[in-house]
Design a protein that fits this description.
By secondary structure, the chain is an alpha/beta fold. The chain is built from seven helices and five strands. Helix 1 packs across helix 2 and helix 5 packs across helix 6.
């Protein structure tokens, strides 16, 4: 079954109407029928960003939507996956991938996902198809 991983950049663009990628992100979501996957590390990163930029209430409302969603699965990073992500982080020092990006890479590999809803080049550098 086709599923799409969602990165912090996409979540943020969906929520912040002033983000330059808001319209493209919204259009993608309205046209997408594939179930979504994100991770607890991405959720953590997104909530922190939303709280710092748009306030606690916005972050809480977003967090509740993701946590209660039947359309988006929240994949939890376990110690084995975290260790593998650490190895990726240490191996690709020439890339600007955050540690969260490396955990996302490992989630996508583990779940055999080929597509990411992301608005930065990191996932394309990792060899995934990115949307929008």
């Amino acid at each position: 079954m086709r599923r799409i991983f969602v990165d912090t950049s996409a979540w943020y663009a969906l929520v912040d109407v002033r983000d330059p990628d808001h319209e493209a992100a919204t259009d993608f979501m309205h046209g997408n029928s594939a179930p979504l996957v994100t991770s607890n590390f991405v959720l953590d990163e997104t909530l922190t960003l939303l709280k710092s930029k748009l306030g606690a209430q916005t972050a809480i409302e977003f967090g509740m939507k993701v946590r209660n969603s039947t359309f988006c699965t929240l994949h939890r990073i376990d110690p084995k996956l975290e260790k593998a992500a650490w190895e990726v982080f240490c191996r690709y020092t020439d890339k600007e991938w955050s540690f969260t990006d490396c955990t996302s890479y490992m989630v996508m590999k583990r779940l055999k996902l080929n597509e990411a809803f992301a608005l930065d080049a990191h996932f394309a550098q990792m060899g995934f198809r990115i949307w929008p």
